[in-house]
Automatic annotation (TrEMBL):
InterPro entries cross-referenced by the UniProt entry: FAD/NAD-bd_sf
GO molecular function: monooxygenase activity
Gene3D superfamilies: FAD/NAD(P)-binding domain
Keyword Oxidoreductase tagged: yes
Keyword Oxidoreductase: yes
Swiss-Prot/TrEMBL keywords: FAD, Flavoprotein, Monooxygenase, Oxidoreductase
PANTHER family found in the cross-reference section: FAD DEPENDENT OXIDOREDUCTASE DOMAIN-CONTAINING PROTEIN, MONOOXYGENASE ASQM-RELATED
Organism name: Lentithecium fluviatile CBS 122367
Protein name: FAD-binding domain-containing protein
Length: 159
C-alpha cells in the first residue's frame, strides 16, 4: 500500500455496477468516471466480467465446507503432528479432506465433494453449524481412516 498514491484506495466503497462508458456506480450513490483501466477482482460474479466475456458463472457440481482448528498445537496435538507445519491432502471416492497449517498456529480444514446445487436447502441441517457438519462428515467419510477423520473431528468453528 505504501507504493500506491494517496487517495487511490478508498475503503468502504462497495461497487454496484460498471457501465459501458466505464463509469463505476457505488451502492452509496457515488459515480466515478474517467478511468483508462478498471481491474475487477471481486470473484466469480465480478462487475467487470461482462467486458471480458459473455460467459456466465455456473455451478460445477462441487461444493464443500471450510472449518478450522484454532491453536492446533494446544487444542489438537494429534492433528497438529499429522499436518506437521504443512498440509495434508486426502482424496477418494470423489471426495477430498484437507488440513493446512497457517502461520497463526491454526489449521484450516476443508472438505469437498459432489453436491446438488440446492444441497444447502434440502440437506436437513444447518451447514453453518460446525457440529451438524461434523455429523454429516461422519456419515460421508464413515469408511475413511480414523486418523484422517480426526482432522475434521477436532474442528471447533466453521469459516
Amino acid at each position: 500500500m505504501e507504493s500506491v498514491p494517496d487517495g487511490s484506495v478508498r475503503w468502504g466503497m462497495r461497487l454496484k455496477s460498471v457501465e459501458s462508458d466505464m463509469s463505476l456506480h457505488f451502492e452509496n450513490g457515488v459515480v466515478e468516471r474517467g478511468f483508462d483501466l478498471i481491474v475487477g477482482a471481486d470473484g466469480a460474479f465480478s462487475k467487470t466480467r461482462q467486458f471480458l466475456s459473455s460467459e456466465k458463472p455456473f455451478y460445477t457440481g462441487l461444493g464443500g465446507y471450510a472449518m478450522a482448528i484454532p491453536d492446533a498445537a494446544e487444542r489438537a496435538p494429534d492433528v497438529n503432528k499429522l499436518v506437521d507445519r504443512g498440509s495434508v491432502f486426502s482424496f477418494g471416492d470423489y471426495k477430498t479432506l484437507n488440513g493446512q497449517q497457517l502461520g497463526s498456529g491454526n489449521i484450516d480444514v476443508s472438505y469437498y465433494a459432489h453436491f446438488d446445487e440446492d444441497f444447502t436447502k434440502k440437506c436437513g441441517f444447518d451447514v453453518t453449524d460446525v457440529n451438524a457438519v461434523k455429523d454429516h462428515l461422519r456419515k460421508e467419510l464413515h469408511d475413511w481412516s480414523p486418523e484422517l477423520k480426526t482432522i475434521f473431528e477436532r474442528c471447533s468453528r466453521g469459516m
